[in-house]
Write a structure and sequence with these properties.
This protein is an all-alpha fold. The chain contains eleven helices and two strands, in the order H-H-H-E-E-H-H-H-H-H-H-H-H.
Length: 263
């Protein structure tokens, strides 16, 4: 599943400059999108839980047409939502993930009303925005799509294994960025541009080192909770091996705000 969506993203994506793959026609990537959709059909909760692995690469968008480009997380979410909608239409009441409005609101808890209020006000703000096109895209990327994913997660992630897989994907995302950060610092120091105070801060796939700090503010506490939880010695060691690279790269970002937030 991960390989199919990765190949769809890489093939014909000139923004990434991947040898061979970036220079191929984008049409060659379509079968991999269809393969991913087919796999989603049979393992929808699996796809939803693994979506966080696509989060960090939003700056590297794939040009689908001359005027339309989307990031990996957007493409993945669109396919998952499309598969879920088709299942709802075809299976109707037999779709195994239906939730009543009452049950969904109970799962949202006290956040239901604030979420709805924020969504409505954000949507209305588009009407008075200086650039409605830019405002609409920002609304979709930063407000509507995340809430759409939240609803999908609340509906489809029902078992303990589903939640563990989701947390594993979040930790995996942090680990990937941490390894990229270490590689950048140790092997590609020429990509670290000195700032005004002379400090070289790792930024990996992001435009700013602070973005790594923001990601780790969400991910690293999960690893710390695992490290300090009631687990076996082997599991605790594994958690330590996950947290250590993230802690090192968090230090290398020199993102003081992120340090305080972790504390």
């Amino acid at each position: 599943m991960m390989l199919s969506i990765a190949l769809f993203y890489l093939i014909g994506n000139t923004a990434l400059h991947v040898p061979v793959l970036s220079h191929l026609s984008s049409l060659l990537s379509l079968p991999f999108a269809l393969l991913f959709a087919a796999l989603c059909w049979f393992r929808l909760p699996f796809a939803i839980a693994l979506l966080p692995l696509t989060l960090p690469y939003y700056l590297y968008q794939k040009q689908l047409t001359s005027n339309i480009a989307f990031s990996l997380v957007e493409i993945t979410l669109f396919i998952i939502v499309a598969v879920a909608l088709v299942q709802m239409i075809l299976l109707q009441q037999t779709w195994p993930y239906w939730l009543s409005w009452k049950a969904l609101r109970e799962r949202l808890g006290p956040f239901a009303v604030p979420i709805l209020l924020f969504l409505v006000i954000a949507a209305l703000s588009i009407l008075v925005a200086y650039s409605r096109k830019a405002a609409l895209r920002t609304f979709r990327e930063e407000i509507f799509d995340p809430l759409l994913y939240l609803v999908l997660a609340l509906m489809c992630l029902r078992t303990r294994t589903d939640v563990q897989r989701l947390l594993g994907a979040l930790l995996g995302t942090g680990l990937i960025i941490a390894l990229l950060g270490l590689a950048q610092y140790l092997l590609f120091k020429n990509t670290l541009v000195p700032e005004a105070n002379g400090v070289r801060r790792v930024h990996t796939v992001y435009g700013s080192a602070n973005s790594i700090g923001l990601l780790f503010d969400y991910v690293l506490p999960i690893g710390i909770a695992w490290l300090l939880g009631r687990v076996s010695g082997r599991s605790r060691l594994f958690a330590l091996l996950l947290c250590l690279p993230m802690a090192i790269v968090l230090y290398l970002t020199q993102s003081y705000g992120a340090w305080i937030a972790i504390g």
